[in-house]
Amino acid sequence: MTWQSLVVGSEMPVLVDFWAPWCGPCRMIEPTIVKLAKAYEGKLNADSNPDIASQYGIRSIPTVMIFRNGEKKDAVIGAVPESTLVSTIEKFVVR
């Protein structure tokens, strides 16, 4: 699987978590991201994928982005409550 097939080519909204293992705030929201990953897609190690992180202007992690039809629709930066992530995601999920 590639970025192209998982995110850009997806017909469904995709949640992408830009993170790094050394990032304290990333570890703080990890349990929330794992929980949300059961319903939504995506986790990208910014250290291992600097080209993609740079392409989307990632300057701070954690940054969680919502993509729909291959386009960035929204982003949440920092360790935020689960409710903030869920409300951001739900704006783009059609049920």
From TrEMBL:
Coiled coil: none annotated. The active site is at residues 23, 26. It comes from the Eukaryota. Disulfide bonds join 23-26. Gene3D superfamilies: Glutaredoxin. GO terms for molecular function: protein-disulfide reductase activity. InterPro entries: Thioredoxin (IPR005746), Thioredoxin-like_sf (IPR036249), Thioredoxin_CS (IPR017937), Thioredoxin_domain (IPR013766). GO terms for cellular component: cytoplasm. This is Thioredoxin. It comes from Musa troglodytarum (fe'i banana).
